[in-house]
Amino acid sequence: MGAQAAGPLVVGVDSSTQSTKALVVDAVTGAVIARGQAPHTVSGGAGKESDPRQWWQALGEALAQCGDAARQASAVSVGGQQHGLVTLDAAGAPVRPAMLWNDVRSAPQSERLIAERGGAAAWADRVGSVPGPAFTVAKWAWLKANEPASAAATAAVRLPHDYLTERLTGEAVTDRGDASGTGWWASSTESYDAEILAHIGLDPALLPRVALPGEAAGTVHAGHLPLPKGALVAAGTGDNMAAALGLGLRPGRPVLSLGTSGTVYAVSTHRPADPAGTVAGFADARGDWLPLACTLNCTLAVDRVAALLGRDRESVEDGGEVVMLPFLDGERTPNLPGASGLVHGLRHDTTGGQLLQAAYDGAVLTLLQALDRVLDADAAPDAPLLLIGGGARGRAWRETVRRLSGRPVVVPEARELVALGAAAQAAGLLLEEDPAAVARRWETARGAEYEARPRDEAAWERLTATLADGAPLLRR
Q1: For 239, which of 58, 73, 288, 422 is 20 to 30 Å away at the CA?
Q2: Are 254 and 266 a contacting pair, CB within 8 Å?
Q3: Looking at residue 262, what is its pLDDT?
Q4: What's the farthest any 2 CA atoms get from each other in the chain?
């Protein structure tokens, strides 16, 4: 148990690729009263899969670590990894492991769907996003093509956060934020798209209903979790939407998140539709939009380069002209699913520290290029970047972002922003308030401030030229 509570308690859950976290939070002050965390495993090899039952078990373990505080909670909400395809049979058991967001086996289905439904611009205009391999629609198409028996046995299709919400409440409910990452929920109509569902052979009866912002999914009915029966359960949302709530974002405030994947996003009052497909036109968990771009290669890729060099991740050195594009897992932004890492400009006098710095530069470049496309009329060109995620604590990451962005940077003190955003959603439901306003009252975006530095134009030009000239190799 942490601080004493002044108001009612709520639980915010972050069910991510690697683990599930639970926070018990004072709904009035935002003080974290208790926390717990339990791991998941992800399969290796070509596919990235997890058994959804692990997530449920990890949720129980994380809540148990919270002790009595969890048993006193009045409301709960789940933020979960986006895009994952959860297929359930008629008894509610998984037909097969969930295909996760970073499973790129569905790249051929993504390309085929884009071509069959009018091209990228038509998808962006209708759905809000061009469905890359991460999107659930491409994963369902992969399943139909490669495991038709699994598809035929499927009686319900869920996203990861929906799966946990349904096990908590017994209700099949999602929200507009996470639904907007499927490829079959259209931002133009804010509803499931019957033509797309028919095209991929998915019966809309297999999908959860989409709750309105601020609407409850139900109440806790699962008796063996350390949560009070009858506690309110919010609709939950995707992890990026939850983090935006956790920061209390107002429109136009840019966020750069450095984690297993890198993401850039901002809340917008304008419905996004990027025909290039770089920006996903997500909905947020309230009533606005969350244009977002995601890269696959971020902290894990740079850490791998550091390990190969036998260096600490902070042991970077200035100077030299070596360029590295650390696309160790293929890449999503730019869309290069078959790419591998590329190094250009090695010299006899290149040092290990310069090579490691080049890996940071390559990872940050693709995020900042995407940020230019994410920001719209709501954004001020000199607005400070909110730097979040595990990498935000690293000096080398922070200084690379400052040097290549030319923007001031703020590193919020709050770390568990997805869980805090879920808690803010639960608190908003309980107190009948706007969850983003709740998070602003909690001052979750407060943190260390770093002034702008002049942008390193020479490094920027080297990186962009190498990315352009290396395109034939990266597309092999």
Answers
A1: 73
A2: yes
A3: 94
A4: 67
Radius of gyration of the chain (CA): 21
* Whole-model pTM over 0.85: yes
Residue 297 corresponds to which amino acid? N
Mention every residue, 6+ apart, whose C-beta is less than 8 A from residue 174: 158, 159, 161, 162, 165, 207, 208, 209, 210, 211, 235, 236
Residues of the chain with pLDDT under 50: 1
The CA–CA distances, whole Å, from 175 to 46, 180, 181, 243 equal 30, 9, 11, 15
Place of tokens 């984690």: 259
What is the structure's pLDDT at 246? 97
Q: Encoding tokens for residue 169?
A: 């409440």
In this structure, the strands spanning 73-80 and 232-234 are: parallel
**Count of CB atoms situated within 10 Å of the CB of 415:** 12
Comparing C-alpha atoms, which of 409, 407, 403, 408 is closest to residue 457?
403
Q: In the structure encoding, which two tokens stand for residue 198, read together?
A: 């028919």
* Tokens, residue 138: 């491409």
**Confidence at residue 476, expressed as pLDDT on a 0 to 100 scale:** 86
Residues contacting 471, CB < 8 A, separation 6+: none
